[in-house]
Amino acid sequence: MAELERSATGAAPALKHHADLESLPALFGRLGDDVVKLLDTKISLLRVELREEIAAYVRGLVLFAFGACIALIGVVLLSTALAFFISSMFTGIEPPNHYALGFLLTGALLAIIGGGIALTMKRRLAAQSVVPRQSLEELRKDKQWLKREIQS
Question: Does residue 83 or residue 111 have the better pLDDT?
Answer without folding.
Answer: 111
